[in-house]
Amino acid sequence: MPGISRAFRASSPEVDLLLLHAPSVYDFRKHAILYGPVSDMVPSSTVFEMYPLGFLTMASYLHDRGMQVRIVNLALRMMNSRRFDVPRFLARQKPKAVGIDLHWLPHAHGALEIARIVKELHPDVPIIMGGLSSSYFHRELIGYPQVDFVLRGESTEPPLHQLLLALREGKPVDRIPNLTWKDARGIHVNPHGFVPMSLDYVDLRPDLMVEMVLRYRDLQSALPFNGWWSNPITTVFTVKGCAFECVTCGASHTSCTHLMKRQKPVYRSPASVVANMRALSRLMHGPIVLIGDLLMAGPEHAAEVLEGLRTADFPNEIVFEFFALPPASFLRDIERSVRHWSMAFSPESHDQAVRDAQVGETGYTNEDMEAVIHEALRLRCSRIDIYFMIGLPAQTKALVQGAVEYCGRLLQLTDKRLSCFISPMGPFIDPGSHGFEEPDRFGYRLFAHTLEEHRQLLVQPTWEHILNYETKWMTRRELVDATYDAAERLNELKVRHGRITKRRGRGVARGIAAARALRARLDAGMVQGRSGLADDALMGEITRFSMSTVCDKRELLWPRRVFNFRITEILRLIGRYIGGKSRAARAVQLP
Ligand code: B12
Domain tally for the chain? Predict the structure, then answer.
């Protein structure tokens, strides 16, 4: 890597690391693709514009060690302006190194394309890829000419720091853990030696985000997803690894053991979780989602977190997610500990056999679940989100309909605080999951195995052809049909049970009808040998037909407030930034 080391020493760039988040497909604005409702359950659009939380932990770790990091959410910039010119923007940057996440596999197209553009513009700047999909496909990924390094693993802050230092000083990289790299002699895979047994060495620092916005005078690039500014949901991760074995998850216990070399989950200490929440709460009024089921670490650990929350007494809504049905007593403990709370739970299916095929022995019945829901509603729980999925092992089309009818039952039994969601697993079954690794055993048929095959799937005209799987029980066509049917029926049920207004329901119904019609047109085009739409007017507009289909996106959000941010804290951070700058300027003037 002589060129790379030279560039590192010779240039006088602005940042040590430029972290770029690519859209799922580059350039989605010029494609006419029906991506399908694959992102309806998350705040992002089908562009998957949300960058990994890890961008913030990496940025804060490097910042604490004196490095400048800038995050640029290219996906969001491209969404917000059709005229945003990616090559032009990138040509103006002078980074010492560029990091690009290929964390979620749906970025297989965009991440590689952005890397290619950066390499073309800055041939001497090292390009580092990372994230779960990068880790899974590291050998294939490093083979692309635009990729110099792949950092494997779900925890990469210290190895990344070591890599940037080695590049700066022109030192060898063969001892840096988790690194896959190449030179004239070939491809090298360093041992996966960094698997931290504590998570307390990293943090998500909201103040750094503010500082980044000020330093680069660029608010948009740092925002996590479209609309975040008006709905600032924040998250705090509590765990890495998982104790569960969901068949379709690429971060299940076995997947983590193989891919991340993590034998068992590691939990953030209660003090660190609460400290991070305090930092967020100081800045924002929005809800704070605790990522990971606190009970996975055992009742004592969960109780300690709750005790911390009780003492901290945050005014924010705290959202708890559960992977297994929580005991009602735990809900009462939450009630005693926090002012405002919500919960999310994913039974995946109403059918016990499907549930067991997906999650293993769940050990609870629908009646048990309903009892827990009732208890939550009896308490001050302000919102319960129940998630179902399409594309599970042993799930037929009739069982998807059954799940929707079961949603109707839940909506009828409860009040407006309970919402039900159903969505297709898509666009891909996770690489590394049981279903992906042993498709025959779990009833899956795969249409792509390699990274390159997934990259190509992403530019197929409709999501029926983008899905990387079908099941023994439903073909891709049936998965799509089952989704639209389920969406239509659930929409009706939500209107009937007063969960959404008739007006909103009509909007969703129109969206589903339009998506179905567009799908028929795209299919007809494919039969005639055309891929995509000849209709230029629709170019880049297709996200319209893929969003808010299985639900109205606004249903995912918490009620908005007039002021989402604490102005005094923002002013304090601005003051700190200006103060720091003028101190630095004075230091430069000193002889
Ligand atoms: C929380 C979470 C979310 C949050 C988003 C949080 C976020 N912004 O990161 C929400 C709910 C919105 C979400 C959405 C999705 N998710 Co998700 N998510 C998770 C979950 C449960 C935890 C991730 C987490 O907290 N990580 C902790 C943070 C601190 O670490 P990190 O972000 O992973 O970053 C570290 C490393 O990954 C690595 N790294 C990451 N990027 C880069 C880049 C570089 C350059 C380098 C060097 C390193 C690096 O280093 C980082 C620092 O240590 C995981 C499962 C799991 N247990 O890991 C699934 C998981 C990652 N999600 C997954 C999927 C599929 C999705 C969706 C595509 C689902 C969908 N169809 O809607 C979307 C994509 C959304 C988007 N991009 O717009 C899959 C990914 C499988 C795969 N290989 O593709 C996972 C593994 C499991 C699952 N099925 O849910 N997700």
Answer: 2
